[in-house]
Amino acid sequence: MENRLNYYQIPREEWRLFYRDHYVPLSSQELMRIKSLNDVISLKDVEEIYMPLVHLLGMRMQSRNYAQGKLADFLGIKHKKPPFIIGIAGSVAVGKSTVARLLRDLLTDIFPHNKIQQITTDGFLYPSDELKKRHLMKRKGFPESYDMKALINFINDVKNGLTAKAPVYSHSVYDRIPGKYDVIDQPDILILEGINVLQLPSNQQIYISDFFDFSIYVDAAEPLIKKWYMERFDLILDKAKDKPEDYYHAYAIGDRDIAHKMAEDLWNDVNHKNLHSYILPTRNRADLILNKGKNHLVDELYLRKFV
Ligand SMILES: Nc1ncnc2c1ncn2[C@@H]1O[C@H](COP(=O)(O)OP(=O)(O)OP(=O)(O)O)[C@@H](O)[C@H]1O
Ligand SMILES: CC(C)(CO)[C@@H](O)C(=O)NCCC(=O)O
């Protein structure tokens, strides 16, 4: 373990040994069940990376609840347990939603009495009509393309125990789905994933991360992220082939080289710029940086020294 300013740098070989005594390794039956829930993540990473992470999260939940109880005692009020909110940031296509879904499933498995919900901030992008009006289609994902006021109101409501609705975005529609919402109703744990979760909104004086109890930045070298973006693009095209209503249908049935060129341009002109100008600068705000290498395997982790 290397001691860097503000972070411990921990190679996977060391991380996988943490809390070894505190949990029983997963049985092959449990591993198969997790595999069926999440068919992309390597089971080796589940055991060696994500299980120790879940146990770290469990510890952090305990200490947060203890501190919250002490505050209630000080104020002489009833103990309340606000949702424990986990934020997951990182580039477009780095694998945030995949990590978020896996954590949701593992946490549900380990804390079966807790209600655990997970959403992405993609739904808080302005709808395409509004983005077009504001000339922001080429800046989709940039800070000004999100309705940050709505996102902050949403997270405020969740933290204060109110029922909150999050609009839903679809990659294949390439837009918000009108009238469709995820309802977040007093969860014990909320996992909020998105490229912007560690950013300071331009016209608001409050960080979304002020509401977080733990934050994770999923990181990788850009050539790898671009490769994953292109691979996901091919998956989206394959699914769009038989769906004329899909945004990508015309690309899916047309010349793949033209489609690939379009995706490559989108990466270079939009997502690459967004990564360097607005996403990477938030990395050092995370409690944990997960660094992925080839095949999405986590090779090292950076854990913030101070809680
Ligand atoms: N651990 C993993 N193992 C294998 N494949 C993965 C893993 N994580 C992500 N992928 C694949 O990489 C691609 C991008 O992942 P994902 O959609 O989760 O990214 P994202 O960061 O949520 O993207 P966006 O911000 O654009 O929604 C997907 O095709 C996904 O299946
Ligand atoms: C929806 C976002 C912003 C984030 O997930 C991203 O997937 C996106 O659509 N970026 C814009 C450029 C592109 O189409 O890749």
UniProtKB/TrEMBL annotation:
Domain Phosphoribulokinase/uridine kinase: 85-228
Keywords, comma-separated and alphabetical: ATP-binding, Coenzyme A biosynthesis, Cytoplasm, Kinase, Nucleotide-binding, Transferase
Pathway linked to the protein: Cofactor biosynthesis; coenzyme A biosynthesis; CoA from (R)-pantothenate: step 1/5
Pfam families reported for this sequence: PRK
Binding sites annotated in the UniProt record for ATP: 90-97
Subcellular location(s) of the protein: Cytoplasm
Coiled-coil annotated residue ranges, if any: none
Listed EC numbers: 2.7.1.33
Annotated InterPro entries: P-loop_NTPase, PanK, PRK/URK
Annotated family: Belongs to the prokaryotic pantothenate kinase family.
The protein's name in its UniProt record: Pantothenate kinase
